[in-house]
Write a structure and sequence with these properties.
Elements: H1 2-14, H2 27-36, H3 39-52, H4 63-79, H5 84-114
Helix pairs in contact: 1-3, 3-5, 4-5
């Protein structure tokens, strides 16, 4: 129960607002995640952030996902000095978007070669 409980805590922390300085996650959330360094909390946090973006396939390929990956990579770089564990968690979000971008690129390439949208057969 501890692992799933930690994941739910991570999901709740992912919904926290920006801090007064404009930093997200806010300082209190960063400190809580950093202090516990729980892999369950980290997993819940990263999955919640990744899943909160929903479907956004407006174009062909993975350009939108690459932009999100860059956003979270930059955030992780800014967090690393003060909150190294949080930076690792945020870096995992970026990796998820990078993987998703590659998948979208592959789908777009397949559609182009077949000249038929994937899934419309």
């Amino acid at each position: 129960r501890g692992t799933i409980g930690d994941q739910y805590i991570g999901q709740l922390l992912a919904r926290a607002p920006e801090g007064e300085s404009g930093m997200w996650p806010c300082e209190a959330v960063c400190e809580a995640i950093e202090k516990t360094a729980s892999s369950g909390i980290g997993q819940g946090f990263s999955k919640s952030v990744y899943n909160s973006c929903g479907l956004h396939w407006l174009g062909k390929g993975g350009e939108q996902e690459r932009e999100l990956a860059l956003k979270y990579d930059n955030l992780a770089d800014r967090l690393y000095h003060d909150y190294p564990y949080v930076a690792v968690v945020v870096k995992e979000i970026a990796k998820s978007y990078t993987y998703e971008a590659k998948c979208r690129d592959t789908e777009a390439g397949t559609e182009k070669r077949l000249r038929t949208p994937v899934g419309s057969w």
